[in-house]
Write a structure and sequence with these properties.
The chain has 253 residues and is an all-alpha fold. It has helices at 8-21, 25-34, 39-48, 58-69, 79-89, 96-105, 115-125, 130-142, 147-161, 171-184, 190-200, 207-219, 223-228, 239-249; strands at 76-77, 113-114. The N and C termini lie far apart (80 Å).
């Protein structure tokens, strides 16, 4: 069967679809035909079905995008390039969706993407342009509402935020990251936890404390939960969590 000839309007719609998704002309036409030539419905179908662009020059398009943000001296995208990348995506660098993107890229260091991280991450997301990645941002943001995905992102954030060569996370960075993560996955006691650390700890945060706080936050969400919490039921709770509970309960409990 021969290919259906497209009229001028349909060709424009195919071009619009390709510009956002990075799909081939054949993919674009198929999705648009399935969606009665409604571009918005076709784009949503493309991303919701987890389809990926199949053009032969996908990798070269991503590589060209990498080169746009690459540092002039080093073969990596550094802080300035990440800033321009976020600007083109129309998101603030402090927006939590940038953490989700970094998680998909499996970036080892904050504010930095290696070539492999960037190229393979974009391929894994099925994106080969800024427009296609921007269109996928709502889907990426929604992953934070999935308990398993949030847990994976939370664990990933610790190593991602550690300074190069350091095994523990600096307190100010840990506090900022906790506030960012729990603003999306609300924990009513996060403000008091951060205040407790800043007033009483003032040292780097261990990976054990970081990991177990997520479990603690699931168990203790209210003042009532706090009063009923039995730290002895889990002798492995980090001492910081024990001290936090003792301070909030007060000396008479």
């Amino acid at each position: 069967m021969g290919k259906t000839k497209l009229n001028t309007s349909q060709k424009q719609q195919v071009g619009q679809f390709q510009g956002i998704t990075g799909a081939s002309k054949e993919q674009a036409a198929q999705c648009l035909q399935s969606s009665q030539w409604n571009v918005e419905l076709a784009i949503n179908f493309f991303f919701n079905q987890g389809l990926t662009a199949s053009t032969s020059n996908d990798n070269s398009a991503i590589t060209s995008l990498y080169e746009k943000y690459r540092d002039k001296q080093e073969d990596a995208i550094l802080a300035d390039g990440v800033g321009r990348f976020c600007q083109d995506l129309q998101v603030d660098p402090s927006d939590i969706v940038t953490l989700v993107i970094s998680w998909h890229f499996q970036a080892a260091t904050m504010c930095e993407f290696s070539k492999n991280e960037f190229v393979e991450g974009m391929e894994e997301l099925g994106c080969n342009s800024i427009d296609s990645l921007r269109h996928k941002l709502p889907q990426l943001r929604s992953e934070l509402t999935n308990e398993k995905a949030f847990r994976d992102i939370y664990y990933y954030a610790y190593g991602f935020a550690c300074e190069k060569g350091q095994k523990c996370l600096q307190l100010d960075t840990a506090v900022a990251m906790w506030q960012l993560l729990f603003s999306e996955h609300g924990w009513p006691l996060i403000k008091r936890w951060c205040q407790f650390l800043e007033m009483n700890h003032k040292l780097a945060i261990s990976k054990d404390t970081w990991s177990q706080l997520l479990d603690f936050a699931k168990i203790v969400r209210t003042e009532a939960d706090l009063q009923q919490f039995d730290a002895s039921s889990n002798s492995a709770w980090p001492y910081l969590i024990d001290d936090f509970v003792d301070q909030l309960r007060g000396p008479d409990t």
